[in-house]
Design brief:
The chain has about 300 residues and is an alpha+beta fold. The chain is built from eight helices and twelve strands. The longest helix is centred in the last third of the chain and has 29 residues.
Amino acid sequence: MSGMETCKHNLHGRIIWPKGSTPLTAVALKAKLSQIWKGLACWGITSIGKGFFEFSFSTLEDVRRVRSTASWNLNPGYLKLFPWTRDFNPRLQNNSFVQVWVRIFGLAQEYWRKNILFSIVSGVGSPICTDASTAKPMFERTFGHYARVLVDIDLSIPLRHKLLVERKGFAFYVELAYENVSAYCSHCKAVGHHMDFCKRLYPEEEARQENTVKKQQNKFPKKVYVQTKDGRVEQGKENPAINVEKEVMNVEEETRSENRDKGKEINQELEKTPVKILSPTEMLKAQDLQLELELTHHVTKN
């Protein structure tokens, strides 16, 4: 293909901008790189989106020259170049790079120079800048427990916690510590979550968890609290509702029961009293006597 032939001297690049900085346009970026890449033949730059650029060079020698440096300092920002590949689509590129502060322990003060620090941390990523304490001159520096450098790191590569530093006739190890490393998913090659919570890897699990949360919310309705203590002496006792109709019926039943009991007592007394049977003569005498008493009582009253 003729298109492939014209791109044989091309490179892809990505610019790492520090937080809060304003990205440059392609025209402004070319003007700045022209001051750094002096002596190059004809070359061009094209913005292809998502922070990626495509660089075209006229000769292979120019490609080798710009590739000889891992990252180019744009002050601010750094340019990282990587080989050109066919069918490159910025939207399909998984972002596995993050900016992380790296602490360097076990480094003597004579090594606290920007170029030396950048050379050391280049073993784990692309250096961006040092912090204010590390950048101070030796006469003004009050903190020397560790040097601190902001590095652009590829999380798809395992982090290294020791590096060998060499100089002529001497070598030693320094320890590295990383601050606030972002979560990274090794399944979808993306920053922002761990593989245990990857929706692409566990889509059913994600849906199940959402349904479980919704069911729990519906299962436990909002509680309504009612005052149970009113400060009275009889608090704590149950106050059952009174059925008036039932109470009236009970009173009537008790009244009937009392009348029945009295009637029974009268009958029992009558049963206990002996009954005397009179003859007809005696009955007539008793009637005459009763009549005489009534007449006497009437006369006396008058």
